[in-house]
């Protein structure tokens, strides 16, 4: 019995030894040069239980960020490059920085003004004027003396700044030496999981790149922050001048040339396509006028009742009660007409977004090539600040509610397109194959299988589009849009805190009502 136990222990120890040898070979394969050192360091890190590891990488401490770049630890490279630059800036300020330059410049300017007052005193015609100028000159002399004292005091701090910089540099070097192996061991763990996606070994290319980056960044920053009168080229990018041959008499800047060219092209396009743009505005205005007539033209009790019943049917009694309270808030504060105009604006934008966006989303969901081509455009529509594309909207479509709706469509359409495409791609292939096997045509497959299964994602996109369109209400008021956004804009212009907050709460309640109704309808459809 004891012999069997001994054999098991020997076998287990043998297996552990084999595993350790395999781990050591793996570490050496990862580290490349100095593999034996990193085997010992990684084992020490694994066996250590304290916060501070019991290893110290001398090469990392001496070379600093350059060592990190050679081992492709780029996060450590940038972090300690910035920290070491801070230390070197303090050292440079202590060694050659003119710490009192600001005070000396101020004293020199005051010296010039004092001399002017002394000259005026010498040329004064009466005793009173002469005394007044001499008094002013005396005050300036005292100010000059104070600035000179401050400059001397600042210069006296040079040694303490130098010592502080040296201490910081030593601390940063020590921290790099202590935690370099820890950072490299974490990179080794990532390499074991993903060998192709994680760099290993010591790369000469990365070493050269790190050295070049260090040489390009560190000296310029140290020079900029330690020399009192640095090169003007480092403070401001030189503006590109354009010759007279391009801009005509006098020439000008590159900005002026490009801006003038763009303005001329936009004006020419607006003139050439005036009929098309007017037609688009007329179509948007038709949808908007219909909604405005239904909401603001109908008796307000009818509108309130229809909205409350819709909320009850879609989302239940609690949402209906909240909807009635929100509408009562807008009505009692005199915001009813503005709130209905806002709903009309948002509704027109959402209707157009859905009419255009869902078919595009279906197309993009079926054609990955088309989606890849459209994705940069969708990214641009969502990331470009709204204030930027308001400019071409004004240039091509003018101002008012219809152009504001067009700007809202640009901002609000991407979610419904993306989520519709996502829902279409999420339909299982097995279900589509089964439908085709039962003789479904392409139209039947789309209408009866794909769209119903993608409907949750499509409705989520519609909900996001509604909220994003509502968030544009205040922005489109900048180009003449009406509704509650105009109220908020006027409150901002006149710093009217009370009206601004009341109007903001009205917009908030509208957003909550729309969101709850759409979500409630979506959840009820899911339950069915």
TrEMBL record:
Transmembrane parts of this sequence: 72-91, 159-182, 207-226, 293-312, 319-338, 344-365, 377-398, 404-422, 453-480, 500-518
One GO CC term, this protein: ATP-binding cassette (ABC) transporter complex
Main location: membrane
Keywords: Cell membrane, Membrane, Transmembrane, Transmembrane helix, Transport
Entry keyword annotation includes Cell membrane: yes
Domain of life, source organism: Bacteria
GO molecular function, one term: carnitine transmembrane transporter activity
Keyword Cell membrane in annotation: yes
Pfam families per record: BPD_transp_1
Subcellular location: Cell membrane
Domain called ABC transmembrane type-1: residue spans: 339-518
BP-aspect Gene Ontology terms: choline transport; glycine betaine transport
Membrane topology: Multi-pass membrane protein
Gene3D superfamilies: MetI-like (1.10.3720.10)
Family: Belongs to the binding-protein-dependent transport system permease family.
Protein name: ABC transporter permease subunit
Organism: Marivita cryptomonadis
């Amino acid at each position: 019995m004891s012999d069997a136990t001994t054999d098991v222990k020997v076998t287990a120890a043998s297996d552990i030894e084999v595993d350790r040898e395999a781990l050591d070979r793996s570490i050496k394969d990862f580290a490349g040069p100095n593999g034996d050192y990193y085997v010992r360091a990684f084992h020490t890190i694994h066996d250590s239980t304290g916060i501070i590891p019991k290893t110290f990488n001398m090469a990392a401490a001496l070379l600093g960020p350059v060592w990190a770049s050679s081992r492709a630890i780029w996060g450590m490279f940038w972090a300690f490059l910035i920290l070491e630059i801070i230390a070197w800036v303090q050292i440079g300020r202590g060694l050659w920085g003119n710490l009192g330059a600001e005070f000396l410049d101020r004293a020199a300017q005051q010296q010039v003004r004092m001399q002017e007052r002394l000259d005026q005193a010498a040329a004064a015609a009466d005793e009173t004027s002469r005394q007044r100028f001499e008094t002013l000159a005396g005050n300036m002399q005292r100010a000059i003396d104070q600035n000179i004292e401050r400059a001397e005091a600042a210069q006296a701090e040079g040694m303490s700044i130098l010592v502080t910089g040296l201490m910081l540099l030593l601390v940063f070097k020590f921290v790099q030496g202590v935690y370099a192996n820890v950072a490299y061991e974490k990179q080794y763990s990532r390499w074991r999981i993903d060998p192709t996606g994680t760099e290993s070994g010591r790369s000469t290319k990365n070493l050269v790149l790190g050295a070049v980056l260090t040489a390009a960044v560190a000296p310029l920053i140290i020079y900029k922050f330690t020399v009192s009168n640095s090169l003007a080229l480092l403070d401001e990018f030189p503006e590109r001048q354009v010759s007279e041959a391009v801009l005509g008499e006098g020439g000008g800047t590159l900005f002026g040339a490009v801006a003038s060219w763009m303005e001329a092209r936009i004006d020419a396009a607006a003139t050439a396509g005036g009929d098309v743009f007017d037609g688009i505005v007329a179509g948007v205005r038709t949808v908007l006028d219909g909604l405005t007539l239904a909401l603001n033209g109908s008796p307000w009790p009818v509108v309130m009742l229809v909205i409350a019943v819709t909320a009850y049917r879609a989302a239940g009694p609690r949402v209906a009660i909240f909807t009635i309270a929100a509408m009562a808030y807008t009505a009692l504060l005199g915001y009813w007409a503005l709130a209905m105009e806002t709903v009309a604006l948002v509704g027109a934008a959402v209707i157009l977004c859905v009419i255009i966006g869902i078919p595009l989303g279906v197309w993009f969901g079926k054609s990955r090539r088309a989606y890849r081509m459209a994705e940069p455009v969708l990214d641009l529509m969502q990331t470009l600040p709204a204030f930027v594309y308001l400019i071409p909207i004004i240039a091509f479509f003018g101002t008012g509610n219809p152009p504001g709706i067009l700007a809202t469509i640009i901002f609000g359409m991407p979610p419904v397109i993306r989520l519709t495409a996502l829902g279409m791609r999420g339909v299982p292939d097995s279900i589509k194959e089964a439908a085709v096997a039962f003789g479904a045509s392409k139209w039947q497959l789309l209408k009866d299988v794909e769209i119903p299964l993608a409907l949750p994602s499509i409705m989520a996109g519609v909900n996001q589009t509604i909220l994003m369109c509502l968030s544009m209400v205040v922005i489109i008021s900048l180009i003449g849009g009406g509704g509650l956004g105009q109220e908020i804009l006027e409150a901002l212009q006149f710093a009217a805190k009370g009206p601004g907050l009341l109007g903001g709460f009205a917009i908030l309640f509208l957003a909550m009502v729309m969101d709850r109704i759409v979500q409630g309808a979506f959840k009820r459809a899911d339950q069915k």
